[in-house]
Design a protein that fits this description.
single chain; 121 residues
Length: 121
Amino acid sequence: QAQLVEPGGGSVQAGGSLRLPCAASGYTYSWYCIGWFRQALGKEREWVALIDSAGGTTYRDSVKGRFTISKDNAENTLYLQMNSLKPDDTAMYYCATERGGTCVISGFAYWGQGTQVTVSS
């Protein structure tokens, strides 16, 4: 069965950096679109960054220039590098996959358990 594991959360001061990994088992990342989502307390879940099966990336405007999504197909691991973190980035972060490979948001069906990122001012 497919599984996603996200061990990289934590607490950091504003302006700091974190790198979130998401390791997959049971399927191969290269065949999927993979994304990072987040949900802040009291808010709806939103997409943050996406990478399609060909390696093309898309970022939410609020993280553009600060976050980088990447994948290591050989290691079957997705990464989110987060720099210049702001308190507004505080949220539970999730990695997820979309089987069609084209990053249709409604198609994300496989989700990690989530990891908390807290950014203090």
